[in-house]
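Hi team,

Below is the intake form for Enoyl-CoA hydratase from Halobacillus salinarum. Please confirm the fields before the structure is written into the shared record.

FORM ID: S-0412
PROTEIN: Enoyl-CoA hydratase
ORGANISM: Halobacillus salinarum
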Amino acid sequence: MNVNENEHLIVNINGPVMSCVLNRPESLNAFSDEMIAALQRALKTAADKEDIKAVILSGSGRAFSAGGDIKNMDKASPKDIYDHVGKLNDAVLMIKEINKPVIAVVHGYAAGAGLNLALACDQILAGEECKFVLSFAQVGLAADGGGSYFLTRLLGPYRAKELLFRAEPIPVETALEWGLVNQVIPLSDLEEQAVNYAIELSKGPGQAIGMMKKLVNQAENSELASILEQERLAQTLMVTTEDHKEGIQAFQEKRPPVFTGK
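The structure came back. Fields below:
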């Protein structure tokens, strides 16, 4: 079912999977306010609808996203930039906070804030020969969209600063070695395997997956004792779910579980 709200973002719902395609191919899917606003609306829909279990975020044309729209940046006032980055920040937070897995499917280039948007997702599936670049220094900008946060936690401060300072492309093989991506897939199979992966996740225990996402995200800024207590409280909620009861019954009956997300 096609539910896209404007030409800058194509949204389709196919069973339990919502697909969001950044759609400004003539500018390598550089962000526009319309695109970011549509993405926020799509994420809210996914959060509100129980039958949507997973979200795929990808780009049309030759790339995932070039990030900020450099061609129009010199026409924007400082307030315009402040407001635009604020909208991007809201979208990043929505990706992190939605209690469903969000999978970035990256091909071509993911550059600048486009890379950071992918890093906000829960998993990154990358096509062969794609490249990642923190391109902000090339145009005299600091990182936005959470790059300073995500890169520091993934790679440590020294490597993060090297990538930001030098703005050199990272080959996908290196990104896989460093843990920036989960899988590298032949480009011809990327879309199909991404959908299959999302469907596979959608068959899992939805409430438990949402809780695990929340706990892992909180662990980035919490002490061990705090996370242990949060896990303890979460488990008392999980044992009341239908998915837990189904998992136990399936185990006892020696069959695969059939989860409903309830």
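SUMMARY LINE: DSSP finds eleven helices and nine strands in the chain.

Thanks, M.
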